[in-house]
């Protein structure tokens, strides 16, 4: 059975229903000017159009053709934008996702829409076989996870309209789900005892094809390309997507995890990495959970203590003072993976981070060129293998730049934050709501009408 939280979310009106369209086109706050009201209106209208077109009854797909289901961290970023148009709909976005939570606490990276044909996306429900796993939800899902941006999204959504959230019982229902989600990550996914969670598949990092994963992936024997049929190449340019060899490794890891019953241990996982982006979102999320707990009349201290432990572990384990950068750590070898990716800047989202100033300096360096590159490149601009058009191997993404912008504001770097915000909006105005962009030329790549690009544009437009 679909559980109560998911069933409640699915009672939302369909995208073509009058209520949702009214929310999208009439429910926004007054938008501050960026470069004149005409530009703002065009961006605002365009973003609403994308989110309306990609809404599917109770959740938003990332892109209609390439990604026709609900993705986990996409929904978190989408909710951050939707909250400005319809707080109730933003709440439903998160409720729908967390309604597919597994009994062990994991939040799956894909919730499959049963109305979408089975061969529309690979790997689909028949590959993951979640229905055969005790404790999996009634709705088909994948068995892996994505970065835990959900507590940040839920608290932001609540703050936008507390009255609506209280009337819907949003926090009392969502908070326990988020607590279980974080507990899964800090227990089952602490594979080394370091206090940090590990990702066990590149897809779990959100930065699927990053060069940061090349070294640990090199130990994984790929499944032959003849053993599976990729669907992404039906909707994307091959030069912008992972290679067949990389995809074969992704399939091998997912298959091995599935065949082990989705058990978590270093013996099961051929790939296991302590990722700075995921752990930073987990620490920032604990601060958000502390705020939720206080709002609900509960003790926030356990969450604040967890945030402090995660922050200390991040800095002591993954931070290199000489580089001014966080690096992932291979859980099998305990060695840092010294590649400069945007994930190593992501800990700026953590409150009270003791090395925030150092991260800002690294972002301003030639590797990332914060003053010029926009969005922030996903990978080192000075690296010989930087590729500005290939998936996570160089192009910039609005969501990771939004996280860094959020961190700049959090740590008092308001001038840099304002400049980044202005340039991000200019990029979207020129390129449209693309999945990712060349960080130096602004050329768009990947899917068009990408939901989190539209949603975070709405949030940037409304930033004070």
Automatic annotation (TrEMBL):
It comes from the Bacteria. The keyword Amino-acid biosynthesis does not apply. SUPFAM superfamilies: Six-hairpin glycosidases (SSF48208). Pfam families: MGH1-like_GH. InterPro entries: 6-hairpin_glycosidase_sf, 6hp_glycosidase-like_sf, Glycoside_hydrolase_63, MGH1-like_GH. Keywords: Glycosidase, Hydrolase. One of its GO terms (molecular function) is Glc3Man9GlcNAc2 oligosaccharide glucosidase activity. GO terms for biological process: oligosaccharide metabolic process; protein N-linked glycosylation. Residues 67-453 form the Mannosylglycerate hydrolase MGH1-like glycoside hydrolase domain. Belongs to the glycosyl hydrolase 63 family. This is Mannosylglycerate hydrolase MGH1-like glycoside hydrolase domain-containing protein.
């Amino acid at each position: 059975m679909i559980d109560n939280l998911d069933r409640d979310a699915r009672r939302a009106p369909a995208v073509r229903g009058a209520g949702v369209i009214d929310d999208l086109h009439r429910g926004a706050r007054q938008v501050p000017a960026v470069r004149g009201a005409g530009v703002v209106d065009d961006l605002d209208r365009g973003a609403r159009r994308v989110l309306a077109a990609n809404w599917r009854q109770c959740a938003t797909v990332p892109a209609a053709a390439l990604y026709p289901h609900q993705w986990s961290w996409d929904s978190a970023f989408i909710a951050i934008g939707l909250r400005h148009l319809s707080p109730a709909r933003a709440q439903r976005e998160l409720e729908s996702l967390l309604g597919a939570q597994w009994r062990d606490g994991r939040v799956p990276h894909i919730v499959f829409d049963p109305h979408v044909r089975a061969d529309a996306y690979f790997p689909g429900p028949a590959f993951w076989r979640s229905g055969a796993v005790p404790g999996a939800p009634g709705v088909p899902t994948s068995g892996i996870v994505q970065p835990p941006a959900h507590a940040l999204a839920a608290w932001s959504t609540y703050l936008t309209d507390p009255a609506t959230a209280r009337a819907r019982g949003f926090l009392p229902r969502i908070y326990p789900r988020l607590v279980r989600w974080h507990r899964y990550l800090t227990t089952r996914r602490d594979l080394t005892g370091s206090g940090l969670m590990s990702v066990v598949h590149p897809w779990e990092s959100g930065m699927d094809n990053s060069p940061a994963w090349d070294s640990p992936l090199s130990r994984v024997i790929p499944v032959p390309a003849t053993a599976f049929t990729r669907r992404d190449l039906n909707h994307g340019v091959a030069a912008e997507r992972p290679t067949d060899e990389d995809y074969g490794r992704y399939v091998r890891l997912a298959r091995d995890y599935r065949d082990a019953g989705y058990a978590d241990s270093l013996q099961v996982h051929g790939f296991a990495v302590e990722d700075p982006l995921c752990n930073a979102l987990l620490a920032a999320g604990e601060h958000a959970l502390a705020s939720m707990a206080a709002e609900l009349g509960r003790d926030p201290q356990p969450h604040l203590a967890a945030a402090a432990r995660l922050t200390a572990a991040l800095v002591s384990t993954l931070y290199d003072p000489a580089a001014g950068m966080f690096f992932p750590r291979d859980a099998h070898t305990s060695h840092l993976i010294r590649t400069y990716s945007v994930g190593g800047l992501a800990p700026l989202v953590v409150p009270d981070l003791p090395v925030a100033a150092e991260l800002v300096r690294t972002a301003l360096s030639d590797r990332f060129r914060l003053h010029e590159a926009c969005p922030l490149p996903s990978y080192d601009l000075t690296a010989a293998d930087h590729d500005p058009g290939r998936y996570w191997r160089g192009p910039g993404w609005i969501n990771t730049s939004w996280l860094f912008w959020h961190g700049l504001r959090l740590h008092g770097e308001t001038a840099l934050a304002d400049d980044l915000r202005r340039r991000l909006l200019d990029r979207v105005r020129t390129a449209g709501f693309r999945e990712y962009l060349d960080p130096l030329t602004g050329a768009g790549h990947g899917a068009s009408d990408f939901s989190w690009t539209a949603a975070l544009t709405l949030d940037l437009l409304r930033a004070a």
